[in-house]
Amino acid sequence: MSDADPPTLTDVTETPLPLSAVADLAERIETNVADVIVGNEAVVGHIVTALLARGHVLLEDVPGVGKTMLARSIARSVDCRFRRIQFTPDLLPTDVTGVNVFNEKSREFEFQPGPVFGNIVLGDEINRAPPKTQSALLEAMEERQVTADGDSHNLPDPFTVIATQNAVEPTRTYELPLAEFDRFMKKLELGYPDPDAEAVLLGRAVGTHPIESLESVTDRETLVRARETVATIRVEKPVRSYITRLAGYTREHAEIGVSPRGSIALLRAAQARAGLDGREYVIPDDVQTEAPVVLPHRIRTTGREDAKTVVSDALERIAVEPS
Question: If you placed Cys at 187, which of 210, 287, 297, 304 could pair as Cys (CB 3.0 to 4.6 Å)?
């Protein structure tokens, strides 16, 4: 990984990749990650689409199933600046974003950037830090900038947060606020491997771990160009209307439904999914593939139905073409 200072948002002016190259790029990253992560191909594909769609990812599961290793494998596959933040109860917001420090030589305050200033940032066990520290990521994830003492500092491009969350030990963790949940494009779960996959995993664990020899298969500039391409994929009015009606269903059948930010996230994820298939336009199948991982974590219910059921009901009952 290069340790050179990555360009900020305003420094990057890359030409979009040809659409045919986007699917090839995604396949190379997925194949590379498969050298470390056994199984979970669908989860890896979802992370790659989020990366292409300028989104952030939350991995939630029990300890030990490979959440952190998956995030590291994705980061190693792209030759760009990787930063890791280990969230702990005593972590302060400035430990994440950075702080102004007085320079004795210049007699001025200078901003010392925190670990959030990376291209791919791993927030490990994010729910172990108190809400005040978790909230340090809100501005960064939404606006791609950090404000310190009234001055704004642009984050690098690309900027993606891959956070892991402990799904057990509720008395030792803090619940993420809904505002932060809403900033993650996708919430994913890995689950336990099946016996055959676990046997392969044990074989790979003998000797040096494969993560240590994993090489990058693309670079920062190519990833930025691929993102530019994905952003140009057409989303026609009927598909946009379909997304709007899906979001509307969740608002009518839950205490808190999908926000407009969630609708935008679904649209962008569907664009990336179309890009993986080499298409210049989004089809309803792209929306239906992405909705189950983009929408549920934004929904709060009070009845017997959980958020995943609300989304599955929406996909089943909302017609692609309005009657």
Answer: 297
